[in-house]
Amino acid sequence: MNQRYRGITLAVVGACFWGASGTAVEFLFSNTNVDTSWLVGLRLIFSGILLMLYACYKYWDKVKAMFHDKKAVIMLILFAFLGMGSSQLSYFVAVKYSNAPTATVIQFLAPVFIIIYSSIRSKMLPRRIDLISIFVAVGGTFILATGGRFDQLALSPMACLWGLIAAISEAINTVMPGSLFKKYGTIPVVGTAMLMAGIAFLPNYFTQPMPKLTPVDISVIVYIIIGGTLLAYTMYLSSVQYIDPSTVGMLGAFEPLIATILSVTLLHADFGPMDMFGGFLIIVATFMQLVPTKDMVKNE
Predict the structure, then answer these.
(1) Which residues of 202-236 are buried (b: 16+ CB within 10 A; e: fewer)?
(2) Cβ count within 10 A of residue 175
(3) Which of the pair, 140 or 29, is modelled with greater confidence?
(4) In a designed cystine with 98, which of 33, 55, 102, 198 is the match (CB 3.0 to 4.6 A)?
(5) For the stretch 256-290, what's the b/e string if a residue is b when 16 or more beta carbons lie within 10 angstroms of its beta carbon?
(6) How large is the angle between the packed helices 60-67 and 70-78, nearest 10 degrees?
(7) From CA 285, how far away is CA 135, in angstroms rounded?
(8) What is the per-residue pLDDT for 37?
């Protein structure tokens, strides 16, 4: 298989696994008494263990060097709780208060927060295309939250709040571990961060009763851990080896697409034309940030 096609396939399938996991989470919240923190902790712990086993098998030298680097360990801890754990928990809560398509689309606001952070850090104004994309993204969020009406909220305040927290956490997920990825690789860093964040949820399993689960519920949880986390992360991150990150970012749009299709068709989620239009604007805003400017072309 051509390397470019391999990269595109990995990115698309990884994004689809992520999108389907959002629908799986929505199914569990609608049909079981599963607690949010219980499910997030389970996902992080088991996915973290599996990724770490793979990392120790294939990247043992990098794993060993990473844990001997005090600065790297401190950065890992911050990434685990401010990025990985926070993004997982806030996204699941956002799904609980809304639905998988809405939570996934709002999380796509992460690039907007990255632009704002980069501008503050560099003390430079964003590019014109970035400012336009922020305006488009805010407009899409407004339509998604209000249904296009000024006199009401289509989403609950809690859904909006947790969706925005998920977007900010996802921005941290993208920016914070960059230097760690370059030095120690994505799989060791992601696996360690997942396991660290998951350990913080361990007290829940001693204080909360075990939820009543059917075989179908258990199979959905297994999918969330294996397909929606382990395979999704490894495939999506591996795609960067074959295609450039900007293309990977664009293909990430399959995540909200799949979440919407599955939630609307299988779970009959309320996601009408105005919601789709608002989500479309947010995704378009993400693509706009990938447009090269004259300055970028000159630098090349």
Answers:
(1) eebeeeeeeeeeeeebeebbebbbbbbbbbbbbbb
(2) 16
(3) 29
(4) 102
(5) bbbbbbbbbeebebebeeebbebbbbbbebbebbe
(6) 90
(7) 8
(8) 92
Cα dist from 183 to 48, 173, 186, 284, whole Å? 19, 16, 9, 33
Quick one: how far is CA 109 from the chain centroid? 11
**Residue 130: closest CA among 79, 121, 138:** 138
pLDDT band, very low/low/confident/very high, at 36 (cuts 50, 70, 90): very high
Higher-pLDDT residue of 154 and 183 is 183
Indicate the domain borders of the chain.
Answer: 3-290
176, 79 contact by CB (below 8 A): yes
Tokens 């970035």 -> residue? 130
Q: What is the pLDDT of residues 80-91, one digit of tens each?
A: 999 899 999 999
Q: What is the pLDDT of residue 219?
A: 95
Please, what's the b/e burial string for 28-37 (b: 16 or more CB within 10 A of its CB; e: otherwise)?
Answer: bbeebebebb
Q: Is the dihedral of CA 237, 240, 243, 248 positive or negative?
A: positive
Query: Rounded distance, CA 289 to CA 76, Å?
Result: 28
Burial class (CB in 10 A: 0-12, 13-18, 19+), 167: buried
Reported pTM: 0.85
